[in-house]
Amino acid sequence: MKTLKRIEVFLIRLFEPIERFCHFYLLLPFRVILSRIDPLARKIEGTRFKKILQVSIYPLFLVLTFVIGFKLVENGYTFRTFAGTVGMFLVFGLIFAPLERLIPFSKKWRDDKELPTDWFLFFGGKLWGDYLNKPLRLATIALVVQEISPEIGQGIWPSHLHPVIQVLLLLSINDFFRYWYHRWMHENEFMWRWHAVHHSSERLYWFNGTRSHPLEGLVSSFLWAIPFAYIQAPVEVIFVTGLLGRTIGRFQHTNMDLILGPFDYIFSSPKNHRYHHSKSHKIGHSNYGGDVIFWDILFGTFYLPKGEQPSDDIGIEEMPNYPKSFVGLMLAPFTYGRLKREAMEMEYDKSKIE
Ligand SMILES: [Zn+2]
Ligand SMILES: [Zn+2]
Fold first, then answer.
1. How many whole angstroms from 195 Cα to the centroid of ligand 1?
2. 88 three-state secondary structure
3. Enclosing domain of residue 280
4. How far apart are CA 254 and CA 203, in angstroms?
5. What is this structure's pTM?
6. How far is the CA of 160 from the centre of ligand 2 (A)?
7. Residue 277 C-alpha to ligand 2 middle, in angstroms?
8. pLDDT per residue over 174-222, tens digit each?
9. How far apart, in whole angstroms, are the C-alpha atoms of residue 242 and residue 77?
10. N or C: the chain end with fewer CB closer than 10 Å?
């Protein structure tokens, strides 16, 4: 136990100055440039221009994802590379960061202190995902395919449907499994240890959908591989579905104040996902969908009260001591018991003072 604590202290001392350096110096020019948008944001307040932006950005991006995705397929791209993913996030950042400043949902969430930590989590998770989770998933698929007759799978997938319908179908099937896995992570305390890292964020913005513990996805890699081995969707459909998932994921966590209308009842949207990040478990145990939201509607976990806005006070209420640094977050599932004890002692001390 003492050794773990020593390793933790050593690693925190090593990484925290880098995170602080990135926050204060590396992000400084971006902070200055982005702050110039604030007067413009005040200027467009209440205008028709703002309303047009709020309504049109989401459907525009969905259409663009389909167009670009199928164009890439036409040109022979059917595989997401590491460089491609990094490039895609840079493009998203260049568009989303200024827009989040122009039409922010929460002014509090403009604070960028969590960004360097999220960079580390992104690259750590990506390396782990590409070199461990992915090969394990592919190996599981290969094993299952060997065991079943290929005709069974090929017979199941409706390749005759329009490609857009096939993408939406695959997205929905994928999210059915994701829904139950996500719900399990909230309802089971052992699983919550891993998923709490994602909910530790105190702000929602375009990039923090990638904030999660790399081990969180390990079990799901096996679980999802099995049904997908049976489905055997064409690789082109899988590729475009992956891109669409990325777009939905950026919007799901964005700080843009959008007006989505029916999309709030179809996709996992910024508005319904903000309730999922609520500090209160009573509200947060809802809207588990990662891409679509109709599984929540079907299984009774949908939460979107009419005429209300979600709070921007988010995080893990019962654990104010939850780590904020990269190393702290990486180790949090392993130090969960200690964190919980400390949090309960803090609560006890507080109640004594009161
Ligand atoms: Zn969650
Ligand atoms: Zn989230």
1. 7
2. helix
3. 2-353
4. 10
5. 0.91
6. 34
7. 6
8. 999 999 999 999 999 999 999 999 999 999 999 988 888 888 877 777 7
9. 13
10. C
What is the whole-number distance in angstroms between the Cα of residue 236 and the centre of ligand 1?
A: 29
Through-space distance between the first and last CA atoms of the chain, rounded to whole angstroms: 34
Q: Which amino acid is at 45?
A: E
At 181, the amino acid letter reads: Y
The rounded distance, in Å, linking the Cα atoms of 154 and 55 is 40
Question: How far away, in angstroms, is 154 Cα from ligand 2 center?
Answer: 34
Which residues, including other chains, have CB under 8 Å from residue 94's CB and lie 6 or more apart?
none
Who contacts 227 (Cβ-Cβ below 8 Å, separation ≥6)?
A: 173, 177
32, 283, 315 from 276: Cα distances, Å = 32, 7, 10
How close is the Cα of 246 to the center of ligand 1, in Å? 17
Given a contact cutoff of 8 angstroms between Cβ atoms, the answer to whether 295 and 173 are in contact is: no
What is the rounded distance in angstroms from the CA atom of residue 231 to the CA atom of residue 153? 5
**Rounded distance from Cα 278 to ligand 2 centre (Å):** 10
Q: How far is the CA of 337 from the centre of ligand 2 (A)?
A: 23
pLDDT tens sequence across 126-143: 777 777 777 777 777 777
SS3 assignment, position 242: helix
Position 158, amino acid: P
DSSP 8-class letter at 321: T
Q: Is 104 helix (H, G, I), strand (E, B) or coil?
A: strand
How many structural domains does the chain have? 1
CA 56, CA 74: separation in Å to the nearest integer? 27
Span from the CA of 263 to the centroid of ligand 1 (angstroms)? 20
* Amino acid present at 144: V
Residue 6 CA to ligand 2 center (angstroms) comes to 31
How far, in Å, from the CA of 198 to the mean position of ligand 2?
A: 6
